[in-house]
Input
Amino acid sequence: MFPETSLNVSLRVRADTVEAVQIRSTRMVRAARLFANRAASEVLHLLPAVFSLCGTAQALTGIAALEKAAALAASPGQKAARALLVLGETVAEHGLTIARDWPALAGTPPQLDHAKRLRHALAGLRNALYPHGDWLHLGGGRLSPDRRKITDCLAQARKALIDLLGHDIDELVLPIAFQAWLDGNPSQLPASILAQGWAGLGAAQFLPMPELGPPDLAVRLSTDREGHYLARPDCAGRVFETGPLAHWYWHPLIADLIERFGPGLLPRLAARLVVLAESLREMDQLVHDLHDEPANDLPGLDGEGLALTEAARGLLAHRVVLKNGKISQYQILAPTEWNFHPEGPLVRALTGAPAGADLEQRARLLIHALDPCVACTISQE
Amino acid sequence: MCMAVPSRVIAVDGQMATVEAFGQTRQTSLMMMDEPVAVGDYLILGAGGNFAAEKVAEATALAAIDYLSQVLSDGLA
Output
């Protein structure tokens, strides 16, 4: 049997307060080292098959790292096409969360039909960009964008989101419209959280991931022989938060909510709506950067490459070393290792929280807000 | 890592499928699938395994299972 990876969050309660939070992880953070001695093309076809939630981001971050290692710059057209695919995956993931998990947490029925329509619309992007199916080709596949199909995909995705949220997503991330949406949709999770007085739940020291990643990332990865950094990353002792809130805390809606409630639960949920709106807006722009391109080939060079992608759950890093055209080292650092670090944002959010009958429910909401990419259990000591 | 094990469909009953991977069977919902699923297909499941996320080609699934077997035997799982 292959073990299912998971997280366990253990809350130690003393004197009516969460005195300590322990996170145990069974995530296979060193598994990518087994990509060594394999051909790059083989690994690129494995990546989307072995990563369940973010296969597109994993594969395209892998391509970018391999191309950097080979000192090959992807063309602007290829970069635009790849960005469209990653953003499409991000929108589908957040849409699914809102359709499936938000109702479950608010005690209302799921809205899976809308999420299914959203996924279906965005799944069409791959074929509309790379009709020959070679989107994983190193150096860039044969790009032949069908702008009409892409525009249709984006329009269908927007329509599914309107049906899911009951509001136009671009307007929804305006502070006044967001407040009106909360007032008019009391059964939606953000409104129920506000009504329960939990908008600022978990507000604590906020250490957002720098836009370009930790400044010491390349050095730390290259010297991480045993995988300790991959399991528990930090930057000079600081454990950053990554994901929607860390990426969009300066957005007018999120800045307004942080000012009112601190960097707590409601700003985190609202940041997902901002991701949806801004991703679709960026996708509309990227369509203009697409043009037909033949497939390129990767020269058989040796070298080292580090690539970063802002994936649905935050910053994803791949580092690869190529020798004689084959992979000699491969490392993957995923957002969950930052957000569910034993000294990271979830621990900061829960430490010192008042105990009570609803403690597990509050912990569940904060875990959801930080969005682990594996199942997560909660226990109390 | 959010690793998925491609799971082979051994039975389909409406919107539910029984799938098998590494000798373990489980039930998963096909509600999020927008293509037909049949016995013998390989599926990638979402986190927790409650929902099937997508279908993968047999050759890709077998390559992934081979890699995951190595992860298991090298003690990295």
